[in-house]
Amino acid sequence: MSRWGLVVEQNLGFGRQGRMWSVDVMDHVEGTREDALRALKARAERFEPVHPTTRKRRTLYREAEGFLLVVEGVWQPFHCRFTVAEQLYDSAAPEPVAQPPGSPAEEHEEPGVSEHAPPEAKLQQPDPGPPPAWDAQVPEVPSWLGRDDLP
After folding, report:
1. Taking the alpha carbons of 52, 54, 58, 60 in that order, is the dihedral positive or negative?
2. Hey, what's the torsion of the CAs at 88, 94, 100, 104, to 10 degrees?
């Protein structure tokens, strides 16, 4: 069964220089592509974009890969694209441990690491600890403090 991401792309920011195109995964759907498109259509119909704040008209179009929402504002129109994308990989997702049915796990094996895992997964990595504070490289006393040669 495939996992599909429901993706929206829209404009964020203000003005010509500050505006940027942004992407967001609204949700995930397990099933077929048609299931994902049905869920995406329902999301696109009730989606409230960031721009424009004052809306005169909303028009939703079906495209080959998803939907296009055009929202006419007081000054100019804005648009949002909605697409479905099959998730092939996620670095943050936990990997399932593959064990044959009925075989007990070995006691000396580390949890979460199978015997067929690559060697670097079996090596124990030291805990890096918490990230350094944002001001970790700033000295407590500035170097210019107490100097007599400064005006």
Report:
1. positive
2. 180
Task: Say how many C-beta atoms besides its own lie within 10 A of residue 144's C-beta.
Answer: 8
Which tokens go with 46? 């009730």
What strands lie across the sheet with 20-31, from one edge to the other? 20-31, 2-12, 77-86, 66-73, 55-62
What pLDDT, on a 0 to 100 scale, did the predictor assign at position 45?
92
Closest CA to 32 of 1, 72, 11: 1
Question: In the chain, which ranges are E strands?
Answer: 2-12, 20-31, 55-62, 66-73, 77-86
Residue 70 and residue 68: Cα distance in Å, rounded? 6
The answer to whether the CB of 51 falls within 8 A of the CB of 18 is no
Q: Which residue has the tokens 């993706």?
A: 7
Residue 77: other Cβ atoms inside 10 A: 13
**pLDDT tens per residue across span 46-64:** 988 887 777 889 999 999 8
How many Å apart are CA 40 and CA 24, to the nearest integer? 13
Cβ distance 57 to 74 under 8 Å? no
Task: Give the pTM.
Answer: 0.58
